[in-house]
Amino acid sequence: MPEPRGLLAGQVALVTGAASGIGAATAALFAAEGAVVRRADLPGAGEIALDVTDAAAWDAAFDRIGREDGGLDILVNAAGIASAGAGDAAAIETVSLDNWRRVFAVNVEGTLLGCQAMLRHMAHARPGAIVNIASSAAAAPSPALGAYGASKAAVAQLTKSVAAAAALSGLPLRCNCVMPGMAETPMTAGMPPAYRQAWIEQIPEGRFAEPAEIAQTILFLASGMSSYVNGAALPVDGGLLSRPIVGLRRDDQAG
Ligand SMILES: NC(=O)c1ccc[n+]([C@@H]2O[C@H](COP(=O)([O-])OP(=O)(O)OC[C@H]3O[C@@H](n4cnc5c(N)ncnc54)[C@H](O)[C@@H]3O)[C@@H](O)[C@H]2O)c1
Predict the structure, then answer these.
(1) Can you list the domains of the chain with their CATH numbers?
(2) Percentage of residues in the chain having pLDDT higher than 90
(3) 195 is catalytic
(4) 53 C-alpha vs ligand 1 centroid, how far in Å?
(5) Coiled coil located at which positions (predicted)?
(6) I need a labelling partner for 223 at 20 to 30 A (CA). Which of 96, 127, 143, 240 fits?
């Protein structure tokens, strides 16, 4: 990983889902890059108690950051769930409406509420950035996780609308999202070994990402390094979405 370069010096960042996985790695990287980082997660898990599905909790978090830190420059909406239940309960053929709605509540409505709070609270004179977390499942079918892929496609589309809304309002706010492939986090830790291996065989890079690798791309989209990137959905997937349909590896093609 590159050495920290003070890319976020003097900036205030709020990261949701910061108690675990990609959110935790992002919060750590942002702090190393000089940001004041506010770590939010479900009550009891984060420094700021913020269930992202709770509109009032968003306002309370922004009010607190306004009082204590003088406002917010960067929002990373990293809170997310793969399924409200476990295993087959999420498959597209059988996913219950309750499960579907819970996944959409956290992944889509939670991200929407965060973007709305940022649009409402940010000052016109202070440039800002939102980074949302979609997934390669936004672009590829995900029959094992019926609601998840659809919810992440919604996050990618929502990201573009937020970018456009900010531009139409004359707000200096960029909004982008990353589309991670498979990352080594608690979300993927319980995968059955054969399923996990099947994924690895589909990934040209031949492995899952470390959360820090996703965080580096989130840093790019949050910082001035991406000053001309807006409304984008950036794959961070080891080539998963760009793989050839046949012959993933040269070795496979030999003989
Ligand atoms: N791990 C992967 O392979 C992968 C791939 C693509 C996208 N993603 C996305 O990256 C994001 C982070 O995932 P992760 O792998 O780090 O998962 P994780 O399970 O390690 O962390 C998710 C965090 O979100 C929090 N959270 C869940 N519901 C919440 C709510 N209602 N309000 C506030 N916080 C809540 C959890 O407490 C947890 O700390 C998610 O949006 C996920 O969909 C992950």
Answers:
(1) 12-253 (3.40.50.720)
(2) 85
(3) no
(4) 14
(5) none
(6) 240
